[in-house]
Amino acid sequence: MSDPQAFQAETRSWLEENCPKSLLGKGGGGIVGTWGGRKWKPESEDQRLWLERAAAKGFTAPTWPKEYGGGGLSKEEAKILAQEMRAVGTPPPLIGFGLTMIGPTLLQYGTEEQKLEHLTKITRGEIRWCQGYSEPGAGSDLAGLQMRADDKGDHYIVNGTKVWTSYADEADWIFALVRTDPKAKKQEGITFLLIDMETPGISVSPILLISGSSPFCETHFQDVKALKSNVIFKEHAGWTVAKALLGHERSMVAEAFGGGGGSRRSLADRARAYLPGADAEGPLPDATLRQDIARMEMDTRVFGLTMQRARDAAKAGQQPGAESSIFKVVGTEINQRRQELLMHIAGPQALGWEGEGFAEEELQGTRDWLRSRGNTIEGGTSEVQRNIIAKRVLGLPD
Ligand SMILES: Cc1cc2nc3c(=O)[nH]c(=O)nc-3n(C[C@H](O)[C@H](O)[C@H](O)COP(=O)(O)OP(=O)(O)OC[C@H]3O[C@@H](n4cnc5c(N)ncnc54)[C@H](O)[C@@H]3O)c2cc1C
To answer: Which DSSP letter does residue 237 get?
Structure first.
């Protein structure tokens, strides 16, 4: 970047001119925002316009190479763009597993053809992805997966069931782990395969969650034809790709929930609304709560800064390693503590499920609290992350 100040000024004026005013300050980030895809129905014309303009500029995936629809920005430029988006108040134009999971994995392991086909559609928000890893008998023991892909020359015939497939009912493509060599050692007989969800033989049934929504699905495959040209890296070598993607996933979950991204109303502001005698400016009239809030905000801030360092390293081309397990444990536990504290702050008002006696933010808070229970399970449980940290970060014996 020749002149950071010129880049900053140019970026700010582009954002001011191109992000529709109605979207400014709308926040978003994490799992809230524009997911795109064939089935996507924009909430407004402005939301669609913002995605279209940002994609044309390469700002949906700022550091990806231009030939794949990215912005080709350097690490420093991407940092300035993120700062300016925060300053102007623009929501992210696009979110989703394409940008955070399969995209970075394809950049590392995809062929040129696969990158040109899939990455460009991701950056334009045309295709939404879901993740087909877990099965009824394979969660923590992921390598024990049984979904079979039988070799038929230039294609496979896939049979089996995936479970906990987030948003499978809204996704267009799935990145799936399949067993291509049933006789090999379990990690060595797995292939990483991309499958169009419209292929005949795929059916999806939603699973209702404790939070009242159903982002989860069971995804059934019955004699599904999947082309070998959609194998990522090499046949039977899918475990290597799967682990790389999990590194991206764990960083994404940590960041989405742990306070590294998005915008939030401060805990102190939330508490003021519930504490008798609290004024708009002064300290909260409850010393214990004040201390809990201060500790929580400090932990969130420190975690956010640590994630920022990891993001910088990723933008400089470094792949996330076993340390993404540390981020996952810490980030998800911070979010669970935060949700508990918010429940404590709102008291009985935090116990609403529906009805006029509760504000929208309170009803959402109850659901967010329940949703946060899954944070320490998705992308690999905290127990499993601690095993990885013990072995691969600390080098402890088995
Ligand atoms: C919100 C959410 C979203 C998800 N989205 C997806 C998705 O999109 N796609 C997908 O494929 N999967 C998804 N999952 C599934 C997730 O990856 C699995 O739930 C997770 O890997 C755990 O597997 P399991 O549920 O089978 O639990 P199990 O593996 O049966 O574990 C049960 C318990 O045993 C413990 N345990 C297991 N093995 C060990 C061990 N070796 N040492 C110590 N303790 C152990 C676990 O920590 C856990 O407490 C999602 C899960 C959640 C909660």
So the answer is: B
Report the C-alpha gap between 361 and 147 in whole angstroms. Answer: 41
User: Residue 398's CB: how many other CB atoms inside 10 A?
Assistant: 5
Give residues with Cβ within 8 angstroms of 293, minimum separation 6: 267, 268, 271, 284, 341
Q: CA-to-CA distance for 230 and 232, rounded, in angstroms? A: 6
- Cβ–ligand 1 contact at 133 (below 6 Å): yes
Please provide the DSSP assignment of 308-321 as one string.
HHHHHHHHTTPPP-
Which strand (E) or helix (H) includes residue 175?
Answer: strand 173-179
The alpha-helical segments, DSSP class H, found in the chain are 4-18, 45-57, 75-88, 97, 103-109, 112-114, 120-123, 238-258, 267-272, 287-315, 323-346, 360-372, 382-388
What atom of ligand 1 comes closest to residue 97's alpha carbon?
Answer: 8
Q: Residue 349, SS3?
A: helix
- Ligand 1 centroid to Cα of residue 226, in Å, is 27
Q: Is the CB of 380 under 6 A from ligand 1?
A: yes
pLDDT digits (tens, 9 = 90+) for 182-217: 999 999 999 999 999 999 999 999 998 887 777 889
Positions of the chain with pLDDT lower than 50, given as ranges: 260-263
Ligand 1 pocket: which of 140, 370, 382, 385 to mutate (most atoms <8 Å of CB)? 140
| CA-to-CA separations, 215 to 168, 212, 251, 273, 376, in angstroms, rounded | 8, 10, 20, 32, 17
Q: What pLDDT does 1 receive?
A: 64
Residue 134 in tokens: 């877990």
- Residue 133's φ and ψ, nearest 5 degrees, are -105, -60
Of the candidates 166, 179, 181, which has an alpha carbon nearest to the alpha carbon of residue 130? 166
Give residue 247's identity as a one-letter amino acid code.
G
387 lines ligand 1 (CB under 6 A): yes
Q: What's the distance, CA 95 to chain centroid? A: 8
- pLDDT digits 0-9 by tens, 91-108: 999 999 999 999 999 999
- Write down all domains in the chain, each with its CATH number in brackets: 4-123 (1.10.540.10), 129-236 (2.40.110.10), 241-393 (1.20.140.10)
